[in-house]
Amino acid sequence: MRVLLLSDINGEQWAQDLSMLDETEKYGWLWLDVTDPTQCEVEQLGQRFGLHPLTVEDIVDDATSQDKMERIGGYALVMYRTTTDMTAETAFSIVVGSGWILSFHTSAAQMHVGRVLDRLQEHSNELLGSSFVVYALIDEITDWLTMTMTQIEHDVVQIDNAVMTQVPEEHTGMLQHMGLLRRRIVGIQRLQLGKPDVVRRVARVLGSNDELGHHFRDVCDHLAALGSLCTQCEVVLSRAHSNFMAQMSLKMNQTTHGLGMFSNRWLVLLGLMLPLQLVAMAFGQNVYVPWMYSDQPLRFDTIAPWLGIMGCILLAFAVGLGFAWYRNYLSR
Which residues of 175-189 are buried (b: 16+ CB within 10 A; e: fewer)? Predict the structure, then answer.
């Protein structure tokens, strides 16, 4: 566990445990950020700040968390999911009370805290409070999702251009790349769905002044643009997928046509050689064949072996034709 305590008196403090909580009464407002907390540590903080057991359960159970904003007693719980590596989702839990903020997340989402600290240092001359910290966290996560979606858009445009300009032989791994991008787009869409309602509810509860309300409305505009970007990328990716499959189908048709032409040429060649094969088979046997000697008359006893061989060949041919006709008759 790693703990950040940011207050209006002592500024930024880092620790590895919760021992710094013993002196929180002297602060005007404070932000306590906990990275990778255990269930016991969350319960301890819940007792210290008077959190409802269901709130503790929502914070601990990251797998089933959804974007939401709940007002419970004297505090508000904000669940605002983010993404870590383009595909994995993780919850960022924020509890806002009177003069204090608690935030819980995994180490993969620690980058958001660092950027928010940089933003707070930029506004160090202004009068900051818990509402501004909540806005900064929500805006940072929204900007991160927008940046992630912008990277996905760049990849989608590259795939669309590659499908239209490259030959099919150069499309190695194209379908796998399309599937990965589509999964990322669906993940961003799933993260974006409930966020506008959450931001509007947070703005109603915490937007105590016009300036902060304007900031929250700006976040809603970014979320709307994010949803539009997801839809646009999905349309472009679907078109690229259709074009890719059309090119593959055309390539398969060309290959099939080439094989058909090759087979037809060999069939013509075999058709030309078949009469020669029949003549060689009929008159090239190792027995006496008719007209083998032009000065000798044909006699049955001399051509009987040849007649027997030819009769067997014709009989086998007739049996094959009859069997084929019988199978065709049964299949009707």
Answer: eebbeebbebbebbb
pLDDT of residue 318: 86
Q: What is the pLDDT of residues 40-93, one digit of tens each?
A: 888 988 888 889 898 898 888 865 568 899 998 889 999 999 987 666 788 899
In the chain the first and final C-alpha atoms are separated, in Å, by 77
Q: Can you say whether the dihedral through the CA atoms of 283, 289, 290, 296 is positive or negative? A: positive
CA angle 55, 35, 199 (to 5 degrees): 55
State the Cα–Cα distance between residues 46 and 44, nearest whole angstrom.
Answer: 5
> What does the block give as tokens for 178?
């399309």
pLDDT above 70 (res 179)? yes
Please provide residue 93's backbone torsions phi and psi, each rounded to the nearest 5 degrees: -100, 130
Residue 141: phi and psi, rounded to 5, are -65, -40
Question: What are the distances in angstroms from CA 22 to CA 5, 26, 48, 51, 213?
Answer: 12, 10, 10, 18, 34
Model pLDDT, residue 20: 64
> Distance between CA atoms of 120 and 134, rounded to whole angstroms?
11
2 forms beta bridges with: 35
Helix 195-206 / helix 210-283 crossing angle, nearest 10 deg? 170
pLDDT per position as a tens digit, 182-196: 999 998 998 898 899
Alpha helices in 166-299 (DSSP H): 174-192, 195-206, 210-283
CA distance 167 to 24: 66
Q: CA 149: distance to chain centroid?
A: 13
Radius of gyration of the chain (CA): 40
At 29 the three-state DSSP class reads: coil
Q: What is the pLDDT of residues 302-327, one digit of tens each?
A: 778 878 888 888 888 888 888 888 88
Residue with tokens 């997801």: 230
Please, which residues have CB within 8 angstroms of residue 116's CB and are 6 or more apart in sequence? 133, 136, 137, 140
